[in-house]
Specification:
Structural class: alpha+beta
CATH topology of the largest domain: D-amino Acid Aminotransferase, Chain A, domain 1
Distance between the termini: 45 Å
Number of domains: 6
CATH superfamily of the largest domain: DNA ligase/mRNA capping enzyme
Number of helices: 27
Number of strands: 24
Bound molecules: 2-(butylsulfanyl)adenosine
Length: about 700
C-alpha cells in the first residue's frame, strides 16, 4: 500500500510518527488494519502475521489514548466490546426477515422450478442464483451512509434483538463500507456463524477453563452472539456471510441477486465463494450434488443449499406465500443431528478387547437412517460430556460415520438420571477389565482365547472385504460358529465341512456350498491382506501393505526386530512394539502356521530393495489449493518419499507447501521462518529423488564442471 506520509512504512512496518503527523498516521493505521482484517476474515487470504497486526493495533490504541478525538466509530480499536447490557433492546425490522420453504428430494426441486416458470408465465429455463444454506443465525445489519449503525437478530421475523455491540466485535463485518458512494440506508441480511476450527479451539478453551463445551458450531455462534457482555463475544471468532437485502435508500437496486452479491463483495462485505448462477432444474441439482461432495471440506457447517430466482424483478413478480418467498427454496441435506433419549448405556467388546461404552437410544431418524445405538467412545468421554442414563441427547450421524452422542441437553435432564459405571469384568467372558494408566481405553484382559466377543471380532475382521474377503460370512454365521464352539480361530474356518455348515440355522445346502467355495477362493491372496487379516493392533490396511512391500515374504516379516520395523515407512515405535509383541506370542505364531498349512498362499518376493526416502524425517504442511494436484495427491507423494504430512505448522515443520488462498498456516510459517514451497518447488524436491544411478551421474557431472 502506498503511503504518502510514511513512504518507508510498507505493510506491517511500524514507525513512530512524527508529532505533527499523528493524525495521518492514525488514519493510515486504521486503513491498514482494516485492509488486513478484510484479507483475513473476508477474503480468507491473510496478508501479515498476527504479531505484526497486533503491533500496529497497539500503536493505534496508544495514539487514540493520547488523542481521543481520533477515535472514530469505524476504528478497529472499537471492536473490543463494551460494558455488559442489562438486557437486549428490541428492534423492529423495517422490512420483515422471512424464512425459506424447505425441500428434501429432487422431485421437490423439479416442482419448485415448474411453479416458478408458471408464476412467470414462461417455458424458458430460469436463471437461478445458487448459494449455501449456512447453519448459523440470521442477522440484519443496518448501514447508514456507509457506517454500521445497528445489528439485529431475526427474532420472530418482525422484531429481533439489538446485538450491535456484539456484532461490532466480529471482524468479518465491516464497520464502514468500502465505497465512496455509500447508500443512505442499506440493510444487509446474512448469517452469523462459527467456523469449525474456531469452534474446536473455543471448546478446547472452555474445557481447559472447566466450562461447558458447546454441542456444535451453531450453538457456539448463538451463545456467543447472544452475550449481554460484548467483551465475551469479542473473544470468540464469529464470521458472517451476506446473502440478502432489506431496505435500500439512496442507491439503485442491482438487477439480479448475483449482482447484489457482487456489489456487496466490492464494498468489503463477506460473500461466500461457493455460489453460482445456473439454469433450470438441472443446473440446481448439479449445484446440489457438487456441494454435497465438497461439504466435509468446507470450513463451516451447512445444512443444505439455497436457490433463488436471479432476476430481482422476477423475484418481485413471484412474491411471497405467507412468510416464505415463492422465488427461493432451501434444498436441505438430511439432518445430521437429532434429539433422543438415552435409555441405557452398555458396553461393546471389540476385537482387541477394547471396551466401548454405547448409548442405547430411543429410535431416532438421523443422517437418513434410524439409529438405536451410538458410540460414547470411552469412559473419559462419557464423563467429560457428562452423559447419563435418562438424558435427552443430541445424536450425530454424519455421512457413513458411526453415530455418536454429541452432548446432553441440560434443560431436559430429569432428576432420576443415572451415571454410567465401567464394569469391572467383561460382560461377555467375565475376565477383568483393565485400563493402563496412560491409556484412554479399557480392555477385556481375556484375549481371544477366553473372550468370545474378541474371537468373533477377530474372525469378522479376518473374513472382511479388505482382509481375506471371504464372502458369505456375516455376523450371524460367525456368531453361531463361535457360540456353538465349532470354531475358535481363523484356521478353524478352513476345517469347516459341508455337514457342519448345513446344520446351522438359516443355512441351506446351497449356501453352505457357496461358503466353502468362498473359503477355497480366499486361500489365494496377497501378503498384505494376510498381514492385515491377522488383526494386529495399530496395523491397518495401509501399514499392512507397507509391511508386505518392505519384507516381501512372510518369513522375513516374522523375523523382523523392532529396529527393522521402524525402518518401514510410516511405522513408529508404538506400531513396531505392537507387531513384535503380537509375533512373540506362540499362539499367534501357531495360528499363522496353521493358516499356511491350510493352504493360504500368496506370491512371495525378495524384500524390497531399500527405496531411497529423501523426505525421511521431514514434516510437511499443506495449505491452500495447488494448481495441478489435489492435497491428497500431494500428501501421497510426500509420504511415498518418506515424509510426514502434518495438519498444523510448528517449529518442527520442515516445509509448508502453499497454494492459492493459503490461510493462516502460511502466515504462521512466515512467522516461524519455516521454508515455504509452491507446487513447482515441491515437484522439484520430489524430482530430485531420481534413482540412485542418475543421482550419482548428476553429482559426477557437477563434479566435472
Ligand atoms: S435467504 C427471503 N439465504 O435460513 C429469504 N437464508 O429458513 C430469506 N439461511 O433465517 C433467507 N443460508 O438464517 C437465505 N443463503 C441463504 C441462507 C439462509 C442460511 C437461513 C437464514 C434464514 C433461514 C430461512
Amino acid at each position: 500500500m502506498q503511503n504518502d506520509f510514511f513512504p518507508d512504512s510498507q505493510a506491517g512496518g511500524v514507525h513512530k510518527p512524527e508529532v505533527n503527523h499523528w493524525q495521518e498516521r492514525a488514519a493510515w493505521l486504521k486503513a491498514e488494519l482494516n485492509r488486513h482484517s478484510h484479507a483475513y476474515y473476508v477474503l480468507d487470504n491473510p496478508t501479515i502475521p498476527d504479531a505484526e497486526y497486533d503491533k500496529m493495533f497497539r500503536e493505534l490504541v496508544e495514539l487514540e489514548q493520547d488523542h481521543p478525538d481520533l477515535v472514530t466509530s469505524d476504528s478497529p480499536t472499537q471492536r473490543v466490546g463494551g460494558k455488559p447490557l442489562p438486557q437486549f433492546e428490541q428492534v423492529r425490522h423495517a422490512l420483515p426477515m422471512l424464512s425459506l420453504n424447505n425441500a428434501f428430494g429432487e422431485e421437490d426441486i423439479v416442482s419448485f422450478d415448474r411453479r416458478v416458470r408458471e408464476g412467470l408465465n414462461t417455458t424458458e429455463d430460469i436463471t437461478y442464483s445458487t448459494e449455501l444454506k449456512f447453519d448459523g443465525l440470521a442477522i440484519s445489519l443496518r448501514y447508514e451512509n456507509g457506517y454500521l449503525v445497528q445489528a439485529a437478530t431475526r427474532g420472530d421475523g418482525t422484531t429481533g434483538e439489538n446485538v450491535t455491540a456484539n456484532i461490532r466485535t466480529v471482524r468479518a463485518v465491516p464497520l464502514r463500507l468500502n465505497t465512496d458512494t455509500p447508500p443512505a440506508v442499506l440493510d444487509v441480511r446474512g448469517e452469523v456463524l462459527m467456523f469449525k476450527a474456531d469452534f474446536a479451539r473455543l471448546n478446547e478453551r472452555q474445557r481447559e477453563a472447566g466450562q461447558k463445551e458447546f454441542a456444535n458450531p451453531r450453538n457456539a455462534a448463538a451463545g456467543s452472539l447472544r452475550q449481554l457482555d460484548s467483551r465475551i463475544t469479542a473473544q470468540r471468532t464469529l464470521r458472517f456471510f451476506a446473502y440478502g437485502i432489506g431496505v435500500l435508500e439512496g442507491a439503485g437496486m442491482p438487477g439480479s441477486h448475483s449482482a447484489l452479491l457482487d456489489w456487496y463483495a466490492a464494498m468489503g462485505l463477506p460473500v461466500c465463494r461457493e455460489r453460482a448462477v445456473v439454469k433450470g432444474a438441472k443446473g440446481l441439482l448439479d449445484f446440489f450434488h457438487s456441494i454435497a461432495e465438497k461439504r466435509r471440506g468446507l470450513a463451516y457447517d451447512i445444512d443444505g443449499v439455497v436457490y433463488k430466482v436471479d432476476r430481482l424483478d422476477h423475484q418481485q413478480r413471484l412474491g411471497f406465500v405467507s412468510r416464505a418467498p415463492r422465488f427461493a427454496i432451501a434444498h436441505k441435506f438430511p439432518a445430521e443431528e437429532a434429539m433422543t433419549v438415552v435409555q441405557d448405556i452398555g458396553v461393546q467388546v471389540g476385537r482387541t478387547g477394547a471396551i466401548t461404552p454405547v448409548a442405547r437410544l430411543a429410535p431416532v431418524f438421523v443422517g437418513g437412517v434410524t439409529v438405536t445405538n451410538a458410540t460414547l467412545h470411552n469412559e473419559d468421554e462419557v464423563n467429560r460430556k457428562d452423559i447419563q442414563i435418562g438424558d435427552t441427547v443430541i445424536v450425530r450421524r454424519a455421512g457413513d460415520v458411526i453415530p455418536e452422542v454429541v452432548a446432553y441437553v441440560p434443560e431436559l435432564r430429569p432428576d432420576n438420571v443415572r451415571r454410567f459405571v465401567m464394569p469391572a469384568t467383561c460382560p461377555v467372558c467375565g475376565s477383568p477389565i483393565v485400563r493402563p494408566e496412560e491409556e484412554a481405553v479399557a480392555r477385556c484382559s481375556g484375549g481371544w482365547i477366553k473372550c468370545p466377543a474378541q474371537r468373533k471380532g477377530g474372525l469378522l475382521h479376518f473374513v472382511s472385504r479388505r482382509a481375506l474377503d471371504i464372502e458369505g460370512f456375516g455376523e450371524q454365521l460367525i456368531e453361531q460358529l463361535v457360540d456353538k464352539n465349532i470354531i475358535t480361530t481363523a484356521a478353524d474356518l478352513y476345517k469347516l465341512g459341508l455337514t457342519a455348515l448345513a446344520e446351522l440355522d438359516r443355512m441351506a445346502d446351497k449356501s453352505a456350498q457357496n461358503v466353502l467355495k468362498a473359503l477355497e477362493k480366499s486361500k489365494s491372496t496377497t501378503l498384505a491382506r494376510f498381514i492385515y487379516g491377522l488383526g494386529i493392533r495399530h496395523v491397518g490396511e495401509a501399514t499392512a501393505k507397507e509391511l508386505a512391500r518392505h519384507f516381501g515374504n512372510l518369513d522375513a516379516f516374522l523375523r523382523a526386530s523392532e529396529e527393522q520395523l521402524i525402518e518401514v515407512a510410516d511405522i513408529g515405535p508404538v506400531v513396531a512394539r505392537s507387531i513384535v509383541s503380537f509375533l512373540s506370542d506362540p499362539l499367534n505364531i501357531e495360528l499363522i502356521e496353521q493358516l499356511r498349512a491350510a493352504g493360504i498362499h500368496w506370491p512371495e518376493s525378495e524384500p524390497a530393495a531399500a527405496v531411497p526416502k529423501p523426505f525421511a524425517g521431514k514434516t510437511f504442511v499443506l495449505t491452500g489449493t495447488l494448481p495441478n494436484m489435489t492435497r491428497d495427491e500431494a500428501a501421497a507423494r510426500i509420504e511415498a518419499a518418506g515424509g510426514k504430512v502434518a495438519g498444523s505448522v510448528s517449529k518442527k515443520t520442515s516445509y509448508v507447501v502453499a497454494g492459492e488462498e493459503a490461510g493462516s498456516k502460511l502466515v504462521k510459517a512466515q512467522e516461524l521462518g519455516v521454508m515455504i514451497l509452491d507446487e513447482p518447488g515441491l515437484l522439484g524436491l520430489l524430482d530430485r529423488q531420481l534413482p540412485e544411478v542418475e543421482l550419482q551421474q548428476e553429482e559426477q557431472q557437477q563434479g566435472e564442471r
